């Protein structure tokens, strides 16, 4: 396979190196990033769906209660204003 040398800033090299999996070459990581970018932001977000599914129920309940407090607070402020 033919190859081509390119120059990149050292800070970008470090970022690529940090993103690279052990089995990936730099060409692989660049290709992966380009493919993810071409798919659009929705596809990039999909890998994070469900990551909190295994959180303890207590944390989920606390989050729901906190959201309700915020919603109630916003609703009361809106009512006061209008």
Write structural notes for this entry.
The chain folds into two domains: 7-49; 51-82. The radius of gyration is 22 Å and the shape is elongated. It is built from four helices and no strands. The chain is an all-alpha fold and 82 residues long. Helices cover 67% and strands 0% of the residues. 0% of the residues are buried.
What does this entry show, briefly?
This protein is an all-alpha fold. It has helices at 10-19, 26-39, 41-46, 57-81. The protein folds into two domains: 7-49; 51-82.
Topology at a glance:
Elements: H1 10-19, H2 26-39, H3 41-46, H4 57-81
Question: End-to-end distance, in Å?
Answer: 68 Å
**Number of self-contained structural domains:** 2
> How many alpha or pi helices?
4
Secondary-structure content class? mainly alpha
H-E order = HHHH
Indicate the proportion of strand residues.
Answer: under 5%
Mean pLDDT: 86
Task: Please give the radius of gyration in angstroms.
Answer: 22 Å
**Low-confidence stretches at least 5 residues in length (pLDDT < 50)?**
none
Q: Tell me, briefly, the overall form.
A: elongated
Sheet of most strands: none
Helix fraction, binned, reads 55-70%
Beta strand count: 0
Question: What labels describe this entry?
Answer:
mainly alpha, 2 domains, 67% helix, 82 residues
């Amino acid at each position: 396979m033919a190859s081509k040398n390119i120059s990149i800033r050292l800070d970008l090299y470090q970022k690529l190196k940090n993103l690279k999996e052990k089995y990936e070459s730099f060409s692989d990581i660049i290709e992966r990033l380009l493919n993810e970018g071409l798919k659009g932001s929705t596809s990039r977000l999909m890998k994070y769906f469900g990551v909190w599914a295994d959180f303890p129920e207590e944390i989920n309940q606390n989050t729901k209660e906190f959201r309700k407090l915020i919603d109630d607070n916003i609703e009361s402020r809106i009512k006061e204003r209008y």
